[in-house]
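Bumping my old thread because nobody answered last time. Still need a sequence for this structure:
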């Protein structure tokens, strides 16, 4: 094992694949100009992350301080170890539902333990170089998932947007939640409604007329100032949480036991899958904006380390965040130092301005998340899929509805399975089999209407029969191919199988071909295989179709001519 590890570690390509982009950037040289650009970008991202981190934490059922700890510790570790130059880590809206459910079921310590376990899983997935496969999740699944999450996030903010008072705990499921909120409409707080409307209007106005200004921070600051100056009767961070601390807590391990570890394992798996998907999507977006290429497996290792480090300080799940990463690129960040400085600036804000955070109204943070939810919902992509593809619409709606009414992981799992089945069906339909008595092959349908006919002596009118197969031969297409090949009636002297149009074959297809060859050999025909590529030839060889063909001759009922490879 040590020998293998040394070998892998010494391989230049592998070594580069697991090198953080920070090291690559520093190798290029790091001067004052780059530091200035990264510092400005880091400050810009920190201004965006400050209110957003608190809002996400509150919506997740945690304290605003937990969101800030996540941005500081998790954000620093992600950028320091990331496989992307521009990735910004922190708490993400996509985790709100999952984190809230985990806290509800296992308590806050259970969430910390599940997050650390998820971090270990992400490190293992990255080191095993499995990060590449996450990108194969179908587009309709991602659209359905993100749109479903957006609706759940918005529904979770209605209470604070309207300042409603509920007689008991707010239900977690969507329909009971909406029923409880509707019943509580009589408790609507006009001041809270006005603050949330002011927050949303300010964010939209700044985005339209001054897009380079920090709209989220301006909106939250205005709402906090109005609450303080007018002494508005609304809930604030101070009234609900007692404010936020002015220092990081000492690192500590959550309560741990084997039974607790088993209990939180499903939640940990969900956090790992969702974190891996979200972070790699963010890295892909960053690649498209910057023209760079990320290292997916190193990215997963970085996310894993961050998800172990963040809970040690009382932080939440960490992932790459698309909006903050895009802000980093637009603000001119050039290396991972920008993300590390963003974490340092958030820490500075917490140390200096913690008392002021007590005046931030929860209605304002709910307004921030309402805008986040609107931006998350992929409205144009959702409508385009519904218009253009019935099969993709099935995948989209299944994922969307299951995410909303059942569970995040169930929605993703069912969506991926449906998407895979539809893809295999489409691939199977592109496989064609042409047949004819000479090199100019003639198509015939599954009823065999144009199939060459036998003469009165039970022999075909010709000595050589050709089959040309085109397309990937895999288990989804093997039954169709087997049906066509099995229609050989009276056997000719030679059967030619042209596989030059087959880029790939699996064992199911090889078994079908073997059955056809068996039958031909038993009836005294020679079989010639032409144009098979190396991969196809290897798969056929595993099923016993090779130059020796001894087994076929031994089981033949009549002397056969064997298999000839062209």
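Sorry it took so long. Here it is:
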């Amino acid at each position: 094992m040590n020998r293998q590890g040394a070998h892998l570690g010494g391989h230049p390509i592998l070594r580069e694949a697991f090198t953080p982009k920070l090291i690559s950037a520093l190798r290029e040289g790091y001067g004052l100009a780059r530091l200035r650009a990264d510092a400005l970008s880091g400050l810009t991202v920190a201004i965006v992350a400050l209110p957003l981190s608190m809002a996400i934490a509150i919506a997740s059922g945690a304290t605003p301080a937990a969101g800030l700890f996540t941005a500081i510790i998790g954000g620093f570790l992600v950028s320091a170890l990331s496989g992307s130059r521009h990735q910004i880590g922190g708490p993400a809206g996509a985790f709100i539902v999952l984190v809230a459910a985990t806290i509800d079921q296992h308590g806050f310590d259970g969430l910390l333990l599940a997050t650390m376990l998820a971090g270990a899983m992400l490190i293992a997935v990255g080191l095993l170089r499995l990060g590449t496969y996450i990108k194969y999740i179908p587009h309709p699944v991602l659209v359905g998932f993100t749109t479903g999450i957006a609706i759940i996030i918005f529904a979770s903010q209605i209470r604070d947007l309207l300042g409603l008072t509920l007689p008991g705990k707010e239900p977690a499921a969507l329909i009971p939640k909406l029923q409880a909120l509707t019943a509580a409409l009589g408790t609507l707080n006009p001041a809270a409604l006005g603050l949330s409307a002011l927050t949303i209007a300010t964010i939209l106005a700044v985005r339209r007329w001054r897009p380079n200004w920090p709209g989220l921070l301006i909106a939250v600051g205005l709402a906090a100032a109005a609450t303080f100056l007018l002494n508005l009767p609304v809930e604030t961070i101070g009234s609900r949480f007692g404010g936020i601390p002015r220092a990081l807590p000492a690192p500590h391990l959550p309560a741990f036991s084997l039974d607790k570890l088993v209990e939180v394992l499903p939640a940990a798996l969900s956090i790992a899958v969702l974190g891996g998907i979200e972070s790699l999507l963010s890295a892909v977006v960053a690649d498209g904006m910057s023209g760079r290429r990320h290292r997916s497996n190193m990215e997963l290792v970085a996310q894993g380390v961050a998800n172990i480090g963040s809970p040690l300080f009382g932080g939440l799940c960490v992932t790459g965040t698309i909006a903050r990463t895009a802000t980093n690129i637009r603000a001119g960040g050039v290396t991972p130092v920008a993300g590390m400085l963003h974490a340092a600036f958030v820490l500075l804000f917490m140390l200096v301005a913690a008392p002021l955070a007590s005046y931030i109204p929860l209605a304002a943070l709910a307004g921030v998340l309402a805008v986040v939810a609107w931006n998350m919902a992929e409205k144009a992509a959702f409508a385009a899929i519904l218009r253009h593809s019935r099969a993709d619409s099935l995948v989209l709606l299944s994922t969307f509805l299951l995410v909303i009414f059942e569970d995040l992981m169930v929605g993703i799992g069912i969506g991926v399975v449906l998407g895979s089945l539809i893809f295999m069906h489409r691939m199977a339909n592109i496989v064609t089999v042409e047949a004819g008595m000479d090199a100019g092959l003639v198509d015939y349908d599954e009823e065999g209407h144009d199939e060459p006919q036998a003469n009165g002596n039970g022999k075909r009118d010709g000595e050589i029969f050709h089959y040309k197969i085109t397309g990937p031969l895999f288990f989804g297409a093997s039954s169709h191919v087997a049906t066509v090949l099995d229609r050989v009636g009276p056997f000719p002297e030679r059967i030619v199988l042209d596989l030059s149009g087959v880029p790939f074959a699996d064992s199911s297809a090889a078994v079908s071909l073997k059955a056809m060859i068996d039958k031909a050999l038993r009836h005294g025909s020679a079989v010639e295989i032409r144009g098979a590529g190396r991969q196809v030839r290897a798969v056929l060889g595993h099923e016993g179709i090779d130059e020796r063909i001894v087994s076929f001759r031994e089981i033949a009922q009549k002397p056969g001519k064997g298999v000839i490879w062209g």
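The radius of gyration is 31 Å. Let me know if any region looks off to you.
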